[in-house]
Amino acid sequence: MTIPRDYESIPGTYVYDAERGRIGYVLNMFCMSLNKAENRKSFKENEAAYLDRFALSPEQRRTVLERDWLGMLKVGGNIYYTIKIAFCDGLTFQDVAGMMSGVSKETYAKMMLAGGRSVQGNRYKDGTAPEANHG
Amino acid sequence: MAKIVAGIATSHVPAIGVAMDKGTTATPYWQPLFKGYEPAREWLAKLAPDVAIIVYNDHACAFSLEIIPTFLIGVAAKFPIADEGFGPRPVPVVQGHPALAWHLAESLILDEFDMTIANEMPVDHGLTVPLSVTCGQPAAWPFPVIPLCVNVVQYPPPTGARCFKLGMAIRRAVEKFDQDLRVVIYGTGGMSHQLQGERAGLINREFDIAFLDGMTRDPLALTRITHTEYMREAGSEGVEMVMWHVMRGALGDEVAEVYRHYHVPASNTAAGLMILETRSAA
């Protein structure tokens, strides 16, 4: 790897870089298809059949069918694309953000009203901080 | 001669557009945010610019991952409103300014900024929410718009320093245009927010306020913020703030801050708005 990916030390974050772009392209292009009303209709009528049109990996397919929002990111999903599945379900960005961070909708909404998730303690994955007491 | 007279920085949170479209801006949740937009709307109505350049990012609407332009300029006479996955926003079609847009495209490319040129493209909330924020809900937008898209969806976006230099080139190009036009430029996106992963919901007020202050105090220092620093300090989607540098670079050295508004939360995001007027003799 020639370009340093120092952002990999940020916890709970899946940067859509070349590595993820390579594995996620097909998954994200399926999501892109949901910009068209007729495709949203077909997807809602029969999700499995609609997904057959795209060469998803079995794991990508599972994450979509199970609405495993965090799992989608781990198999190359980009949030601006995967959110289109959520829009089909009538969910909002905030609903999905809460689910990805593993808390209830109410808990997440309360956290945002209180000023959001603090950066303190959330800068580095455990053991990756360049110096002690830095985040 | 055309002239850039002011810059507007604003977040483009889609939920802000939804609140306006559904008429919920007076609710306790949204009222503090929208109240802070009123002075900006009054200022812009009074300024009455002839044309706006809006620097924003497309969110999987006009462009997919099929082709990813780093910098793109829209030269069409009109730009339809995109269906982002839940139907198009009920806002007016955006009128373009093909003469100035083509002039910018030519000038920027010859000035070594290799723009992609779009003759047809829909525009999404990245462009329409800033218009809604600053113009309210008119039957037609009060001025034509030149969309200028920056990729911030596929890593890496262009650097802050490159964005600033693009802004400087836009200023040079505008000043060579042979019509007397008063131009405003919008830099949109941000401020701190993270929409993805277990760390979703991250907000960093301290970073944001320092960024707002830096727009007038030391904009060049802000251009040295790395992508990793944006993502670590201001959330993975906070990297959108590179687009503010295009706006700032287009304003020249002497600017005055005439208004700012900062509010948390707008859905998952810290919403910022800042108005800067150019003060240089040009």
Explained architecture:
The complex is a heterodimer of chains A (135) and B (282). Chain A is flat and about 50 Å long. The longest helix of chain A is centred in the first third of the chain and has 16 residues. By secondary structure, chain A is an all-alpha fold. In chain A, 53% of the residues lie in helices and 0% in strands. In chain A, α1 packs parallel to α6. Chain A has 2 domains: 77 residues, Protocatechuate 4,5-dioxygenase, Chain A (Orthogonal Bundle); 33 residues, no CATH class. Chain B is 34% helix and 21% strand. Chain B has one domain: LigB-like (Protocatechuate 4,5-dioxygenase, Chain B, 3-Layer(aba) Sandwich). In chain B, a hairpin with a 2-residue loop joins β9 and β10. The mean pLDDT of chain B is 97. Chain B is of the alpha/beta class and 282 residues long. In chain B, the strands form 2 sheets. Chain B has an 8-stranded mixed β-sheet, with helices on both faces. A two-stranded antiparallel ribbon of chain B has the order 4-5. The N and C termini of chain B lie close together (10 Å). Chain B contains 10 helices and 10 strands. Classes of the chains: A mainly alpha (135), B alpha/beta (282). The interface between A and B is large, with 52 and 43 residues.
List keywords for this structure.
heterodimer; A: 135 residues; Protocatechuate 4,5-dioxygenase, Chain A; B: 282 residues; alpha/beta; Protocatechuate 4,5-dioxygenase, Chain B; two-stranded antiparallel ribbon; 34% helix
